[in-house]
Amino acid sequence: GLRRHVPVLRGSGWLLLGAGSGEVTSRLYSFAVVGRFGTEALAALSAVQVVIRPAWMLSAAWISVGFPAMSGRWKAGDTAAVVRTMAQGVALTTGASLAWSAVVVLAWPWISGTLYGGRYTEAGWLAYLWGANVVLGSIAAVLNTGMLSIGEFRRLALLDMAGALVVIVATAVVLARFSYGAAVVATLLGQAT
Question: Which in 37, 97, 152, 159 has the greatest CB count within 10 A?
């Protein structure tokens, strides 16, 4: 009966908990910023984030390739190949995220003028924060994928929960003292957990 499905259900529960915690880590800022500073502040954050987001596509593409590769190597007992694949993934996604973020930082005056009709020119400093976010996020994506590929659902969920708790506390603290851009720093702290 149901006994044979218990391991799958248990793993699914940890995955769901981890995914929910990950959403808190990556999305809490938007609600907190609107509540504290209003929609204009969120619009500035979003205007910059939208242009940085393509760097996430490489991480997503790497996950699609890296997960099955690492899972297969893990099942074959080749731990060294799993570690090599993770190291290659970190190098590739981090390098690409750094390069894309640098382009956005350098091109922000043109980007804000072209995409936003001159609005958000003053928000260019946020590209540094979002760039750091996407770089750290690319590292986390690879490491998380490695943990998933070897079946460490519980450990990953607990790490994700810890990150979410850090983001909740950090968001409350930084937004009480600093401008809306500090919400990205709170998100970075959660990702680093």
Answer: 97
